[in-house]
Amino acid sequence: MTKRLVAVAVCGLLLAAAAAAQYTPWLYWTLLPQSQMDEIVGEASGESAWNTVAEINAFNRERLDGEYSGHFFETQVVVRKLKDHGLAGIDIVTFPGGQAWVAIKGELWETKPGRHKLASINDMLPMLASGSATSDVTGELVWVGRGTPKEIADAEVEGKIAVTEGPLMMAYGGATQKGALGVVAIAMSRPYFAPLQMPWSGIAQRRRPGGAAPGQPGPPGGQPAPPGVAAGQTPPPAPPTGFAFQLPVREGDILKRRLLANEKITVRAQIEAKTETADLENVVCHIPGTDPAAGEVILSAHLFEGLQKQGANDNISGSACILEVARVLNTLIAEGRLPRPKRTIRFIWGPEFSGIGEWVRAHPEIMERTLCNINMDMVGEWLSKNKAFFCLMRTSYGNPHYINDVMENYYRYVGEGSRERIQNRAGAAGVPVRTVAPSGADEPFLYSIETHYGASDHEVFNDWAVGVPGIMMIAWPDQWYHTSGDTADKADPTQLKRAAAIGAAGAYTVAAADEAAAEAIAGEIASNATRRLGHTLAVAMEALDKAAADSFADDSRYARGLLEAAVMNEKETLASVLELAPGAVALTGHVARLSKAVDGVGSAGIAALEAHRAVAARKLGVKPPPPAASELEKKAAKIVPRPTAKVREAGYRGYQRLITAVPATDRAKFPVAGQGLTLANPSELQMLVNGRHSALDIQKMLDAQHERRSSLQAVLNHLEILKIAGLVEW
Prior knowledge:
It is built from 25 helices and 15 strands. Helix 3 (46-57) packs across helix 9, helix 3 (46-57) packs across helix 15 (493-512) and helix 13 (403-417) packs antiparallel against helix 15. 43% of the residues lie in helices and 16% in strands.
């Protein structure tokens, strides 16, 4: 058998293992000893977490005036429970916030031809869009369809109230510009699934850059609020002069049919609103470790997502779950059922991005000694009701870290152990590892280990200026996401118990890890790396299968780059384990040997890819070019950028001001958009700048993580911009 065939056979076995993902039904292991895992799972209470969710958000409620002069209700609940659980260092840390819109009254009544109520905040708070101006007007309703400019113009809305089944903000902006008094929107958020729910929506004359209108959280992937601005708020714009109401689909459809039948309907809208100064409130506490110099692990969850928008699962569930993790670990350690770890475990609750971002910016000394972050966002959803999976969103290549594989270990333990398999049918419980809350769902734990995704507070920690690797635990999809239907009845005590057990086990594993534990974690990474590299090989082969004759050389380099980037990431992930036992000779040698083995898997993958490249070339009728670097690639391989001290000077996102300040003339010299240049993720590029990656490495690592390929010239140009900003040198 030739060397090429041997390599192909080896990689074929790797691919088969990755594709089948067959699990051993008799073996369910964790990084922690089974006795410690049993204590954590047994102590975790889904009911305790669910009760917190229900206490804070069993229903959508109006805020009391006293919450603006004192502490918000959510803050009060978390602090009270932390005190009951005996946590150390409980503190409420506040930062200046902004102006919050507050509804006092919101009524929409039909006055002609009948007399009845159409909408009221006393019935459902989201019926009045946040930002609506104080008003008392009477006007005729007019149907504007989807609210397009043409439909609004044709409807002659001046002096009237426009009714739409299109996007609220689009209709509001277009109608009020044409003189409409306001807008009534039929909420079309998942109308066939839940016709009674409405999204939390808002109106404003200007929107938060990259985000949503005040009081209207944006979709996953939205940008964080600027420093000092509360999540879901902006620096106060000129106040809106109009208003907007929402109706659920069931009620709105009746109104729509009446208007389409040319019925003349007159309504009176009465709104009273005010603004309040709202501080950014963060709650922090910790479980002290035995060695203050050994570092910390931080668990985070956003307790606020704007002050009007509420959500039991987004994200009171995450807040309740890290509260349960704090109770579980503090109880087990205080009672001697778990040894006190040498590293401190810290917890923070606050406003999404803005509040937690301010706290991180204010504590660079804590960030310096923090090893990793576990962020919980939307973790309590009843999975089968939502048709959801419980997802682990890994760190990106810019922050390679063992926390990914630590968390995957516990996801797998709960997920595979909760599956009823034919091999285990003789057991009384039907499953080998039963993790079920007494009042919760007794069903499989559907989980998914996924690539990096942002849009939550782990991005504060992952930020270039902070550099703390952070993962996110999240259930997705969520059928009630960002709507009035996101209440406690959609949460499941079993899901909360499982999420708390996984979070507690992951945090404690890192906090307590010694050299022996670090060696075990390294072994876990190496074994998972084999599977991940097998998947990357499949992706690379698929890229060759889709290659065109005229781009075959570029496609070949792209496919090979995917594997090379994945190998780099796996080796850097292995190297991160060394921080758990600095200077340990045996651990250093163990990691080096595992890293060499990963190189071997990568080399076998490259050989298999080369064999596949020959087949792809033959099918296209082209001669496979040698895997040689282009002149631009040779240039990029010699550039090894490293960050300067300015990156971290101003803390979280502070470097952005320097990038923004780069003159337009310099930007014109080094374009990163247009002219055929694309850059998939500038933020990830910045995090990949570490003094070890060449510009060519950075392009490959970007391509390995994104659907769109990045232009190497765009990568070089963006690095030049960063150099001009004083953030990068080489």
